[in-house]
Amino acid sequence: TSVFISWRPSLSWNSQDSSRPMVMSARELPPLESFGHRQQLLLGLAEPQRVDPEDPSSEIVESDRLIIEESHRLASLPPHQRPLELQRALHHLAVQDSLERLPATLDDTGERTLMPAHPPASVTLAELSIALSEVDGQWQFSASQTSTVDTAVRPIHLATSTLVALLAGQSGVDSPAVTGPQIDADGVTVDSTTLTIALPTTSEIHAASISLDSFSVSVFSDATGWEEIVIDSVTFDSTTMQIELVLDVAPAGELTRIIARGTGPTPLLGIDLLPLAGKLGQTAASDSGQDFVITIRN
Fold first, then answer.
1. Which of 57, 81, 197, 277 is the most buried (most CB within 10 A)?
2. What is the pLDDT of residues 153-172, one digit of tens each?
3. pTM of the predicted model, to two decimals?
Protein backbone atom coordinates (compact mmCIF):
# COMPACT_ATOMS: atom_id res chain seq x y z
CA THR A 1 0.00 0.00 0.00
CA SER A 2 1.32 3.43 -0.97
CA VAL A 3 0.02 6.93 -0.28
CA PHE A 4 1.03 10.46 -1.17
CA ILE A 5 0.98 13.24 1.42
CA SER A 6 0.92 16.82 0.11
CA TRP A 7 2.12 19.60 2.40
CA ARG A 8 2.65 23.29 1.70
CA PRO A 9 5.21 24.86 4.06
CA SER A 10 4.70 28.60 4.37
CA LEU A 11 6.66 31.59 5.56
CA SER A 12 4.67 33.47 8.21
CA TRP A 13 5.23 36.57 10.29
CA ASN A 14 4.20 37.59 13.76
CA SER A 15 2.86 41.06 14.52
CA GLN A 16 4.98 41.32 17.66
CA ASP A 17 8.28 40.52 15.94
CA SER A 18 8.20 40.87 12.17
CA SER A 19 11.96 40.34 11.91
CA ARG A 20 11.70 36.64 12.81
CA PRO A 21 9.85 34.66 10.14
CA MET A 22 8.82 31.08 10.88
CA VAL A 23 8.26 28.09 8.62
CA MET A 24 4.87 26.54 9.29
CA SER A 25 2.33 24.33 7.57
CA ALA A 26 -0.08 26.18 5.27
CA ARG A 27 -2.86 24.06 6.78
CA GLU A 28 -2.40 25.93 10.05
CA LEU A 29 -2.77 29.38 8.50
CA PRO A 30 -5.32 31.13 6.29
CA PRO A 31 -3.91 32.10 2.84
CA LEU A 32 -3.35 35.74 1.97
CA GLU A 33 -6.38 37.35 0.38
CA SER A 34 -6.11 38.10 -3.35
CA PHE A 35 -5.40 41.72 -4.17
CA GLY A 36 -6.53 43.84 -7.10
CA HIS A 37 -9.96 42.34 -7.74
CA ARG A 38 -11.21 45.40 -9.62
CA GLN A 39 -8.23 45.47 -11.99
CA GLN A 40 -8.42 41.71 -12.61
CA LEU A 41 -12.14 41.94 -13.32
CA LEU A 42 -11.59 44.70 -15.90
CA LEU A 43 -9.00 42.54 -17.64
CA GLY A 44 -11.23 39.44 -17.56
CA LEU A 45 -8.98 37.65 -15.05
CA ALA A 46 -11.50 37.37 -12.20
CA GLU A 47 -15.12 36.40 -11.74
CA PRO A 48 -17.58 39.10 -10.60
CA GLN A 49 -18.77 39.00 -7.01
CA ARG A 50 -22.39 37.99 -6.42
CA VAL A 51 -24.90 39.43 -3.96
CA ASP A 52 -25.18 35.89 -2.58
CA PRO A 53 -21.69 34.33 -2.80
CA GLU A 54 -23.23 30.87 -2.38
CA ASP A 55 -25.61 31.32 -5.33
CA PRO A 56 -23.84 31.73 -8.71
CA SER A 57 -27.14 32.77 -10.30
CA SER A 58 -27.68 35.72 -7.95
CA GLU A 59 -27.17 39.30 -9.14
CA ILE A 60 -23.70 40.74 -9.61
CA VAL A 61 -22.83 43.36 -7.01
CA GLU A 62 -23.28 46.90 -8.31
CA SER A 63 -19.59 47.89 -8.19
CA ASP A 64 -18.55 44.85 -10.24
CA ARG A 65 -21.41 45.37 -12.71
CA LEU A 66 -20.11 48.88 -13.44
CA ILE A 67 -16.62 47.50 -14.07
CA ILE A 68 -17.98 44.93 -16.52
CA GLU A 69 -19.85 47.70 -18.34
CA GLU A 70 -16.59 49.67 -18.52
CA SER A 71 -14.78 46.66 -20.01
CA HIS A 72 -17.48 46.42 -22.70
CA ARG A 73 -17.11 50.14 -23.43
CA LEU A 74 -13.35 49.76 -23.83
CA ALA A 75 -13.81 46.78 -26.17
CA SER A 76 -16.12 48.84 -28.39
CA LEU A 77 -13.62 51.68 -28.85
CA PRO A 78 -11.57 52.04 -32.04
CA PRO A 79 -8.24 50.17 -31.65
CA HIS A 80 -6.15 53.36 -31.57
CA GLN A 81 -8.15 54.72 -28.61
CA ARG A 82 -8.12 51.61 -26.38
CA PRO A 83 -4.58 51.70 -24.86
CA LEU A 84 -4.93 55.19 -23.35
CA GLU A 85 -8.49 54.58 -22.15
CA LEU A 86 -7.49 51.23 -20.64
CA GLN A 87 -4.57 52.87 -18.85
CA ARG A 88 -6.88 55.47 -17.34
CA ALA A 89 -9.42 52.85 -16.24
CA LEU A 90 -6.75 50.62 -14.69
CA HIS A 91 -5.23 53.54 -12.78
CA HIS A 92 -8.64 54.52 -11.43
CA LEU A 93 -9.39 50.97 -10.26
CA ALA A 94 -5.88 50.45 -8.88
CA VAL A 95 -6.36 53.44 -6.59
CA GLN A 96 -9.65 52.01 -5.32
CA ASP A 97 -8.02 48.60 -4.74
CA SER A 98 -5.08 50.13 -2.87
CA LEU A 99 -7.30 52.24 -0.60
CA GLU A 100 -8.76 49.02 0.79
CA ARG A 101 -5.33 47.74 1.84
CA LEU A 102 -5.38 49.19 5.34
CA PRO A 103 -3.38 47.71 8.23
CA ALA A 104 -5.38 44.97 9.94
CA THR A 105 -6.83 45.55 13.41
CA LEU A 106 -6.45 42.88 16.10
CA ASP A 107 -9.81 41.74 17.43
CA ASP A 108 -8.71 41.47 21.06
CA THR A 109 -6.65 44.65 21.53
CA GLY A 110 -7.67 46.89 18.63
CA GLU A 111 -3.99 47.31 17.81
CA ARG A 112 -2.98 48.09 14.22
CA THR A 113 -0.60 45.65 12.58
CA LEU A 114 2.15 46.28 10.04
CA MET A 115 0.39 44.22 7.40
CA PRO A 116 -3.10 44.32 5.83
CA ALA A 117 -3.69 40.67 6.78
CA HIS A 118 -4.39 39.41 10.31
CA PRO A 119 -1.30 37.77 11.83
CA PRO A 120 -0.13 35.15 11.65
CA ALA A 121 -0.44 35.20 7.86
CA SER A 122 1.27 32.94 5.38
CA VAL A 123 2.97 32.94 2.00
CA THR A 124 3.11 29.48 0.43
CA LEU A 125 6.67 28.44 -0.48
CA ALA A 126 6.11 25.08 -2.19
CA GLU A 127 4.03 21.93 -2.24
CA LEU A 128 5.79 18.82 -1.00
CA SER A 129 4.40 15.47 -2.17
CA ILE A 130 5.90 12.68 -0.08
CA ALA A 131 5.44 9.04 -1.14
CA LEU A 132 5.03 6.56 1.73
CA SER A 133 4.74 2.78 1.64
CA GLU A 134 3.42 0.47 4.33
CA VAL A 135 5.97 -2.20 5.29
CA ASP A 136 5.22 -4.64 8.11
CA GLY A 137 2.56 -2.35 9.51
CA GLN A 138 4.82 0.72 9.47
CA TRP A 139 4.96 3.66 7.09
CA GLN A 140 8.27 4.30 5.37
CA PHE A 141 9.50 6.57 2.61
CA SER A 142 8.73 4.79 -0.65
CA ALA A 143 11.68 3.49 -2.62
CA SER A 144 9.62 2.86 -5.76
CA GLN A 145 7.80 6.19 -6.00
CA THR A 146 9.40 9.61 -6.16
CA SER A 147 8.61 12.43 -3.74
CA THR A 148 8.35 15.84 -5.39
CA VAL A 149 8.74 19.52 -4.55
CA ASP A 150 6.48 21.85 -6.59
CA THR A 151 7.52 25.50 -6.28
CA ALA A 152 5.01 26.65 -8.93
CA VAL A 153 2.37 27.19 -6.23
CA ARG A 154 4.41 30.05 -4.75
CA PRO A 155 2.87 33.52 -5.32
CA ILE A 156 5.25 35.96 -7.00
CA HIS A 157 5.44 39.44 -8.50
CA LEU A 158 6.64 39.88 -12.07
CA ALA A 159 10.17 41.23 -12.29
CA THR A 160 10.34 44.97 -12.87
CA SER A 161 12.48 44.41 -15.99
CA THR A 162 9.73 42.17 -17.43
CA LEU A 163 7.07 44.82 -16.78
CA VAL A 164 9.27 47.52 -18.36
CA ALA A 165 9.85 45.30 -21.42
CA LEU A 166 6.12 44.69 -21.78
CA LEU A 167 5.34 48.39 -21.54
CA ALA A 168 8.05 49.20 -24.05
CA GLY A 169 6.76 46.60 -26.49
CA GLN A 170 10.01 44.60 -26.36
CA SER A 171 8.60 41.41 -24.87
CA GLY A 172 8.71 39.46 -28.12
CA VAL A 173 4.94 39.08 -28.03
CA ASP A 174 3.14 40.62 -30.96
CA SER A 175 1.08 43.60 -29.81
CA PRO A 176 -2.03 44.67 -31.69
CA ALA A 177 -1.00 47.24 -34.27
CA VAL A 178 -2.78 50.54 -34.58
CA THR A 179 -4.77 50.12 -37.79
CA GLY A 180 -7.57 51.75 -39.68
CA PRO A 181 -11.18 50.54 -39.70
CA GLN A 182 -11.92 46.90 -40.45
CA ILE A 183 -15.00 45.13 -41.84
CA ASP A 184 -16.63 42.32 -39.88
CA ALA A 185 -16.99 39.50 -42.44
CA ASP A 186 -19.43 37.60 -40.22
CA GLY A 187 -21.86 40.54 -40.33
CA VAL A 188 -21.92 41.06 -44.10
CA THR A 189 -25.42 40.67 -45.57
CA VAL A 190 -26.69 40.58 -49.17
CA ASP A 191 -30.37 41.40 -49.67
CA SER A 192 -31.54 40.47 -53.17
CA THR A 193 -34.96 42.00 -52.51
CA THR A 194 -33.75 45.52 -51.70
CA LEU A 195 -30.62 45.15 -53.89
CA THR A 196 -28.39 46.16 -50.96
CA ILE A 197 -25.19 44.90 -49.39
CA ALA A 198 -24.35 45.84 -45.78
CA LEU A 199 -20.73 45.91 -44.59
CA PRO A 200 -20.38 46.48 -40.79
CA THR A 201 -17.20 48.30 -39.74
CA THR A 202 -15.26 48.50 -36.48
CA SER A 203 -14.97 52.29 -36.61
CA GLU A 204 -16.23 55.28 -38.53
CA ILE A 205 -15.39 55.77 -42.21
CA HIS A 206 -14.30 59.22 -43.38
CA ALA A 207 -17.16 60.51 -45.56
CA ALA A 208 -14.85 62.15 -48.10
CA SER A 209 -13.08 58.85 -48.80
CA ILE A 210 -16.26 56.99 -49.81
CA SER A 211 -16.65 56.62 -53.56
CA LEU A 212 -17.91 54.04 -56.06
CA ASP A 213 -14.28 53.42 -57.09
CA SER A 214 -13.55 52.04 -53.63
CA PHE A 215 -15.82 49.01 -54.15
CA SER A 216 -16.53 46.26 -56.62
CA VAL A 217 -19.20 43.55 -56.71
CA SER A 218 -19.07 40.67 -59.16
CA VAL A 219 -20.94 37.40 -59.61
CA PHE A 220 -19.89 34.06 -61.06
CA SER A 221 -22.07 31.56 -62.91
CA ASP A 222 -21.17 28.36 -64.72
CA ALA A 223 -22.72 29.70 -67.93
CA THR A 224 -21.08 33.13 -68.21
CA GLY A 225 -18.20 33.13 -65.70
CA TRP A 226 -17.44 36.37 -63.85
CA GLU A 227 -19.56 39.49 -64.45
CA GLU A 228 -19.31 42.78 -62.56
CA ILE A 229 -22.46 44.34 -61.11
CA VAL A 230 -22.97 48.11 -61.31
CA ILE A 231 -23.10 49.84 -57.91
CA ASP A 232 -25.62 52.69 -57.95
CA SER A 233 -24.67 54.32 -54.62
CA VAL A 234 -22.57 53.95 -51.48
CA THR A 235 -23.39 55.42 -48.05
CA PHE A 236 -22.07 55.08 -44.51
CA ASP A 237 -24.33 55.14 -41.43
CA SER A 238 -22.34 56.30 -38.37
CA THR A 239 -25.16 55.18 -36.06
CA THR A 240 -25.09 51.52 -37.13
CA MET A 241 -21.41 51.70 -38.23
CA GLN A 242 -22.33 50.17 -41.57
CA ILE A 243 -21.46 50.73 -45.22
CA GLU A 244 -24.42 50.17 -47.56
CA LEU A 245 -24.03 49.42 -51.26
CA VAL A 246 -27.08 49.76 -53.52
CA LEU A 247 -26.81 47.57 -56.61
CA ASP A 248 -28.24 48.00 -60.09
CA VAL A 249 -29.44 44.36 -60.22
CA ALA A 250 -29.74 41.50 -57.76
CA PRO A 251 -26.75 39.13 -57.54
CA ALA A 252 -27.34 35.94 -59.53
CA GLY A 253 -25.23 32.87 -60.13
CA GLU A 254 -23.28 30.62 -57.78
CA LEU A 255 -20.91 33.16 -56.17
CA THR A 256 -20.93 36.85 -55.18
CA ARG A 257 -17.53 38.51 -54.61
CA ILE A 258 -17.32 41.83 -52.78
CA ILE A 259 -14.20 43.99 -52.51
CA ALA A 260 -13.76 47.16 -50.43
CA ARG A 261 -10.42 48.80 -51.10
CA GLY A 262 -7.89 49.72 -48.44
CA THR A 263 -5.06 49.90 -50.95
CA GLY A 264 -4.47 51.71 -54.23
CA PRO A 265 -4.97 55.41 -55.02
CA THR A 266 -8.43 55.83 -53.43
CA PRO A 267 -8.70 53.61 -50.30
CA LEU A 268 -11.40 53.95 -47.69
CA LEU A 269 -10.13 55.92 -44.69
CA GLY A 270 -11.04 56.10 -41.03
CA ILE A 271 -11.65 59.43 -39.34
CA ASP A 272 -8.01 59.26 -38.17
CA LEU A 273 -7.02 59.06 -41.88
CA LEU A 274 -5.74 55.48 -41.56
CA PRO A 275 -6.74 53.30 -44.54
CA LEU A 276 -9.08 50.32 -44.34
CA ALA A 277 -7.30 47.34 -42.76
CA GLY A 278 -9.21 44.48 -44.37
CA LYS A 279 -11.24 41.96 -42.38
CA LEU A 280 -11.74 42.15 -38.64
CA GLY A 281 -8.84 40.32 -37.01
CA GLN A 282 -6.38 40.72 -39.88
CA THR A 283 -3.04 42.44 -39.30
CA ALA A 284 -2.09 45.27 -41.62
CA ALA A 285 0.48 48.05 -41.53
CA SER A 286 -1.21 51.20 -40.26
CA ASP A 287 -0.32 53.33 -43.31
CA SER A 288 -0.40 50.65 -46.04
CA GLY A 289 -3.96 49.42 -45.63
CA GLN A 290 -5.48 46.18 -46.85
CA ASP A 291 -8.41 45.29 -49.11
CA PHE A 292 -11.47 43.60 -47.69
CA VAL A 293 -12.42 40.64 -49.87
CA ILE A 294 -15.26 38.17 -49.32
CA THR A 295 -16.80 35.55 -51.58
CA ILE A 296 -20.33 34.43 -50.72
CA ARG A 297 -22.11 31.36 -52.05
CA ASN A 298 -25.54 32.39 -53.28
1. 277
2. 777 777 777 776 666 554 34
3. 0.45
